[in-house]
Specification:
single chain, alpha/beta, Rossmann fold, 2 domains, five-stranded parallel β-sheet
Length: 316
């Protein structure tokens, strides 16, 4: 008999979805109306041995308690801050994620947001489409990237990939995270506040979770300053969102490019109304190739577990 798994959200890859249905008895919660979720889980929960979830959905203690036979949580995403390890660890439930395969696309989007914010591309698009160019409305020039400094908060795979890309634009580089990264020529700032103070662009690539919640606060934004730009492709929880809105509105921060938000998919109207921010809907890994690779890694981890093999990407 095939192992039963609960699928929290679909993969955009048809091949991944076909493999899930081929190898497992799938209970697709995402196909069920929200007001029927509880009844659905009551009906299938006792037999569920695996959970296919996402980095934003994860699994909480309440759901874990309703899946008494659960053996593995396979997260389609790199972030595991939505996984309640206090609920999974005592039961020996394995957790996997999908690192590595999304690094390049997320780094590409970070650079795209930085360029869009620095060169005011959305505003210029509006300027052309709105007829202001034809009307000869005066334009304020942007600032060059060369000779500026990009500070990267979180210097793991994605942070280092962002650094490699930005070096090609002539930017000086710095990073900060609690532990020193060996084997890099990029200097480490003494603190996050120092990194912001020393940077023209602050790129957030750190993991989410309680340890980083709200660390990019009003003081860090003030250190970045009125000519500074914040880029966040990590987790919305890392940034104090009300402080960010206030800083962008009063000019104490120059601009921002954001792919993630504190309460997705809800974006504060005050943030969306600002002209000096570029917004994208958490799409750092949303390419055909990467989403397939992520989904494939979910399938491969589930198969490895139920075949008694070593997991490909276990979360410690």
């Amino acid at each position: 008999m095939q192992p039963e798994i609960l699928v929290m959200a679909p993969s955009p890859s048809p091949a991944v979805m076909a493999q899930l249905d081929e190898h497992f008895t799938c209970h697709h919660l995402w196909q069920v109306l929200a007001d029927q979720h509880d009844a659905f889980i009551d009906r299938v929960g006792a037999g569920v041995r695996g959970l296919a979830t996402t980095g934003t959905i994860g699994i909480d203690a309440a759901l874990a308690a309703r899946l008494p036979a659960l053996e593995i949580v396979a997260v389609n995403g790199i972030g595991v801050d939505a996984v309640d390890f206090a609920a999974t660890r005592p039961r020996g439930i394995a957790v996997t994620n999908t690192p590595g395969v999304l690094t390049d696309d997320v780094a590409d989007l970070a650079v795209a947001l930085l360029l869009a914010a620095a060169r005011r591309i959305p505003a210029l698009d509006h300027y052309v489409r709105g007829g202001q160019w034809a009307e000869r409305v005066p334009l304020q020039p942007a600032r060059t990237l060369r000779g500026k400094t990009a500070g990267i908060y979180g210097f793991g795979r994605i942070g280092r990939a962002v650094a490699a890309r930005l070096a090609g634009f002539g930017l000086e580089l710095r990073y900060w995270q609690p532990n020193v990264v060996a084997g890099t020529g990029v200097p480490r700032s003494a603190s996050l506040a120092d990194l912001a103070r020393e940077s023209d662009y602050l790129v957030v690539c750190a993991p989410g979770g309680p340890a980083t919640r709200g660390l990019v606060d009003a003081a860090v934004l003030a250190a970045l300053g009125p000519q500074g730009t914040l880029i966040n492709i990590a987790r919305g929880s890392i940034v104090d969102e009300p402080a960010l809105v206030a800083a962008l509105a009063d000019g104490s921060l120059g601009a921002a490019g954001l792919d993630v938000f504190a309460s997705e998919p809800d974006v504060p109207p005050a943030l969306a109304a600002l002209p000096n921010v570029v917004l994208t809907p958490h799409v750092g890994s949303l390419t055909v190739e990467t989403r397939h690779a992520m989904g494939q890694l979910v399938v491969d981890n589930l198969l490895a577990h139920f075949l008694g093999r070593a997991l490909l990407t276990p979360v410690p």
